[in-house]
Structures are given as C-alpha cells and as structure tokens.
Amino acid sequence: MKKVAIKKTVKKKKSAIYEWLKAIFIAVTILLIIRIFAFQSFVVSDSKMESTLMPGDYIVINKLNYGARFPITLLSVPFYGKLYSDLVQLPFIRIPGFSEISRNDLILFNYPLEKDKPIDKKSQMLKRCVALAGDTIAIVDKKIFVNKKGIGNAPNCKYRYRVISNNVLPKSFYTKYKINEGGITDNENVYDFFITKEISDSLINDSNIKQINLIKLQKGDANNPYFPQSENFNWSLDYFGPIIIPAKGKKVSLDLKNIDIYRTVIERYENRQIIIKDKKIFINNIETSEYTFKMNYYFVLDDNRDNGKDSRYWGFVPENHIIGNASFIWFSINKLNNSSELRWSRLFKIL
Questions:
Q1: What is the pTM of this model?
Q2: What's the CATH number for 158-214?
Q3: Cβ(283)–Cβ(262) under 8 Å?
C-alpha cells in the first residue's frame, strides 16, 4: 500500500510540474507573438531625442499601425537579440497595417549602417520622421523645408546656444533651468548649452547672463562629416540638401556627382554593384544614367538637433528596417546623479 501511495504522489508531482511547464510555455509563446506582431518596449538610453524623450523613458512601440515585420532571423533566442545564428533568414515581409508612415511620426528602426548583422539584429533607434519617400528635403539656416514648404519643428527641440555670463555659473543655475547638456568652453565665462528655445528666452532675463546666441554651422564646417561624406557636397547640420528621398518605383537620373548620395542605397540596401569607369556609371556591369528604386526610404532627425546622430550624418532609413512607431511612455525613471527618481508626470504620456 505504501508503494502505491508513493507512486501516486510521484505521479501527481510529475503532473504538476508538467502543468507548470505547459503554462510557462503558453505564456512565453503568447508574449513572443505579441512582441513580434503587436507591441514591444523600448528604453531610451541617450539624450538625442530630448526634450521629447528623456533617458530612462520606457516606450511602447506599436507595430500594428505600419504592419508588423515578420522575423528575418529565425534562429534566435527569444527576448535576447544578441544570441542568434544567421544560417536561416527569411526575406522581408510586412503584414498590412492600419496606416502609412506620416511626417512627424516617432519611428523605431534598425540602424541601417551596421554591417555584418541581419536587418532585425541591428541596433534599434528611435527618431522623428520628417520626410517621406519621394519628398525633397532641404535645411536652410536651421529651418526645414519639405517639397519647398517650411515645416515647423517639434515644440521641445533642443539647439546649441553660446552663453556668456558675468560670473562662473553655479550648480544651482543648471538645476533652475534644467540644463543637463553642455558646459563651459575653453574661454572664461563662456558656455555652450543644448537647450530649448523656451529655456533660452528665460536665460535672456537672468541677471547673470550677459549674452546668448544660437550657434549655426555654415556649409563645409568640421571637415564635412555629414552625409554623403563626399567632396561634391559641403553640407552641414544647418544647411543641408536639397535631396530627393528614394521612393519605390521612382526613377532618378544619375551623374558623377549625385551617385555619392545614392551609392549606399543601391549597393548595400538594394544589392546592386556600382562601378565607375572612364567617367561612366555601371550598375551590375550595365552602363546607365538612371536608376529605379526598389524600396521606399525615409529621412529622420533627432529632436536634440545639434547633439544627435540622424540622417544628416548617415542617410536614409530603408522601409525593411522600420519596426513601428512610438505610442506612449509607460514608465520613466530619472537616473541622473544615480537618483533613480520616478518621473510621475511622464507615466502613460501619449507621444
């Protein structure tokens, strides 16, 4: 009788363990499906989108609006993107969504220029889309023009200001005006701050401030680190373009100058080979003076306009790199000065 009772106890334990494992498997599967096809979380870790997004903001990314992208890299550990194998990869497929990408959307995407990684395993970035496929964008004197029409900036955009003070600015000054980027230059009482226009207007009325000016970069500044990093273009952060954003099915004329703009798109994103020989352009060994794009592309900017790394540095975002759009902030914690302070005012803030 004792042996029978022991066997029953062992059987019940095995049954309970099986039920627990089954429940865990079902829960993980549901979470994985939701993450792949509906929503995912993204943590802001830098100041490139301040003051719209702050380091420590936890963002809900909606994949349903644009349509969820099917996984490309199949051999991957769920919820841990760094452990994967690229032996099995699917082509880019996107489920039809409820809307198209619009100007001013905050979009999450995989960083296009990362090499030697599958598309869905590249680093993720969250930036503001300012120009769509087929648009012509230009930046003149920090003002953005899309299709020759000026568009307003996001209200919380930050810029670099040169501030001259009467005396050394104390820590209380930074706290009062919520300044957490920039500082003193090589010159005494001369500071460079990355702040919003609203804050700069407040500084004008501060008795300790002698002068404040918005810094503007003329063309050709800083040894031309800006896209397309070509001697044929001397653009800067504040004077950029005009440039046509590639669009699926759109044909553009190519010459020895503008090939520098579209080389990365044609070679890396659309897998064509470009050779320039005897001042002639060859694509896949065929001489040509035009090209028809196979995908849509987008132009993005950081809201921290003078302290970011956006399309002005590295170019276009291909449609197969786009993950979804920012929906709302579900959690936010201020980790400055190791305070770990909860930002109550930012919880469930719609973006």
A1: 0.91
A2: 3.30.70
A3: no
